[in-house]
Task: structure prediction
Amino acid sequence: MEMLINITVNGLATGMLIFLLAAGLTLIFGLMDVLNFAHGALFLWGAYSGIWAYTTSGSFFIGMIVAIVTCGILGFLLERFIIKPVYGNHIQQILITLGAMLVLSELVKVVWGPNIIQARAPEWLRGSWEIGDVFLIKYRIFIILVGLLVFVSLLFLLNRTKLGLIVRAGVMDKEMVQSLGINIRKVFLFVFILGSGMAGLGGMLFGPYSGVIYAELGLEYGILAFIVVVIGGMGSVLGSMIAALLVGILGSYAAYFLPEIALAVNFLLMLFILIFKPSGIMGMKEALK
Amino acid sequence: MSWLGLSKFKLTLTVILIGLLLLPFVSDSRTALIMLTKIFIFAIFAMSYDLLLGYTGIVSFGHAMFFGIGAYTVAISLKAFGPSIPVVLLAVVITIIFTGIVSFLVGLLTLRLKAHFFAMLTLAVSALFLVVAEKWRSLTMGNDGFTFQIPDLLRDRVSFYIVALIFMVVVFLLLERFTQSPMGKVLQAIRENESRVESLGYRVMHYKITANVIAGIVAGLAGILYAMSLRFVNTAVFTVELTLDALLITIIGGVGTLFGAIVGAALIEYTRHALMDLASVHWIFERWIILLGTVFILVVMFFPKGIVGTTKYWWTKRKMSKVKQSKTTTKG
Result:
């Protein structure tokens, strides 16, 4: 029983990290219909810049801010110079953002060196609480709390503010929103920066969670983010939350009980869901032509 | 006199081909020979990818899976049955059957989905192959891979070079013929406007699956050559990076032009080779992927047709203006 609780908490923490990564992408994907394969690179930059700022300043909080700001700026640059020229063409989007991902992942090696970098949680988040036989690792609880906080504020932003209304309407019908006189391009840019910042935060939090960061994380987690968006259904924040937790918990159970297939679990899950519900768990838009 | 221009082009190609065939007897540079062999193999792989991306408008992220199937099939057969030509031929037959079945099933399951979903699903299936190759240690030796012997005839670098070159030319001619056939024309129509082709009464799925199967088989054959050129195989043949290589080669050479795949493969392999040499001169060249990525972005932005596509475009434009000129002069 204690074991199951530990595994579940692990899975929840991983799931929350994946959610931070995927939530931005699902908005970008759902609203702007942009296949941004450079999203994983933003996660990577969040991890490196955040950990760097944290180790030089000594403050975990400053690290988080730096990660978010760095990725926000990178997101702005990406949208303006890489993605804007290829709106509306999926194949070109895939190609150009892949190029951007290659460049950004490699630039990380130029700035911080090609070696694996160690990352540790701050003093106040080390260790664990013991409740009976259950060990709750503080840092994982912290990640779950941050993820929940971001999730709730995102839902508030989307469902309770005028901007959220516009974004949601844009996901449903872009042309209609535009014809009402709203500058959808500005909304696009805002969503892109928001999504990039969240990916950055996810990357920063990932560092101490795994203990090490390395430049190949970009591609790895970029693909994972896409899997989650596809499973959750594009444009749905709730869907990506459910999908992220599903991927996290399933992965953590598989790693314990069936380590042989742990690597393939995410892909099997996606295969299974897409075959039976091609639009994803909460997807509204048709995936079929 | 447009036929003269065309034949001049074909003449140039023939001369280059003969030059390439004679090269190993003129020069004895092993590195050049190995690099050219690698170029031929990647050109075959990229041509098969271009059949999907360029001619049918399908983005696949799992093309390496067919390449990997071919590589592992030949490696395992040669290791199990000993190095002889019949074993290689057996591996070819098994690869054709196996890649044919896999590409058919994957196509059946996933081609009804929209572009990005298809891309993700092919990625998923190829990741499953990667996991199998990593975990089925008794057969594949896991991540480390294994070495194997190849038949004496192919052990000679020169004869292997010629086999690869001839194979590339044959694949090029066959695929060129295929894309010019009525079926190839339907594929290109699907790329341009799928729903219109469907409303004309064509069964789009049937055509897409056929393209997928042909591309899969050709990629598998490229994988056989690749494994034999290295005499070693490991799970790298199943990775996304390999699919990205094919993508890159196709894009830079020119989407929808088979010849572009050859030019792209030559350019990228050569650049990679040259930049790796430069790495000993200055550390920044170790990060040559930055340059590669930048080129990727610039090509998509400014030369969406790639090298061969853009050249072709200029060529036709020039010819058209010449035709126009002569027409106006005869009228006047």
